[in-house]
Amino acid sequence: MLDEKNYWLGFSVFSGIGPIKFKKLLEQFSSAKDAWNASVLDLSEVIGEKLAGRFDDFRHKFSIKDYINQLEEKDVSFIILTDSNYPELLKQIRNPPFVLYYKGDVEILHSVENDNGSRYIAVVGTRRTTSYGREVTKILTEELVASGFTIVSGLAIGIDAISHKTALENNGKTIAVLGCGVDCCYPLANQHIYNSIVNDNGCVVSEYPLTQRPTKGSFPARNRIIAGLAMGVLVTEGAEDSGSLITAEYALKFGRKVFAVPGSITSLLSKGPYKLIAKGARLVTSAEDILEEFKMPSFAKAPRGKQNSKFKNATNEEKKILNILQNEPLHFDELVRRTGFESAKTGSVLSIMEIKGLVKGLESGQFSIAS
Length: 371
Known about the structure:
It is built from 18 helices and twelve strands.
């Protein structure tokens, strides 16, 4: 015997009806069951004659019971918009998914601000990363996990993958939002991360039905869910046309916070964060900046290098700069001259050192060892 929730599930498989049309159907017919069994004529008044005809063909060929069995075989579950464990923040956005498929621990999705002070933040960025972007993402994700945040991202190659992987490596929780069915790992190169999320300390979610492959339009739709699940979106690296900026735009529409990491002004992959900062995003160099924006106390002091361990934890390039700065602050141009590095490389290394808390930039354009 099918219940109301099962009919919601059936509608989620039909590609012609999304959140907006499904809402109209509920308003007209009071329940998904009644809408599913309505006449083509009555359906036409709500969704149009052509779509009603397509849906009629679909429901006569599609078995909800068989589909439920497929979900069970693939260890996939689902929640609907009216369920008590549907993510509260996601419920607040305009046109949230009416069905959310998932694999993994559903408790990770539930209750964004519960008694334990759960915190959710999206960490996103470019697929084509630089060494600076990779290191900054790793450092900030480690700090955010240490500060009690669950990391939300899109499982894409690059920044997304680094944020998921770093969260898991630091015993943190993470949610991957897919632009395909949750039984499909896309891209396949991240299958090992997908498996770790599902089997370890995370959850993979999607609004798309089983076996559905990603399309060009599914990724922007996926990005709205990433932004909807999180209290804020952090962009660590990306070009001006990066898809991560779409996620940030959704965050702004939803009234969520947007954060961006400054990078080298000579790098095209720093243009995205600088564009966001110019539009009012909070400039971030540590998790403390994010906690401060949310007016939250820190769960744990983020792991930064202390004075007596700077050289121990620094790379060879960083050690070279630290040695040069031992006696006095120096201007950027002087550091370029003394290190022998190219300007772009010097700027990138210094930016990472600032993120690590090894050096600090002064208003005069000079740099000194951080106290």
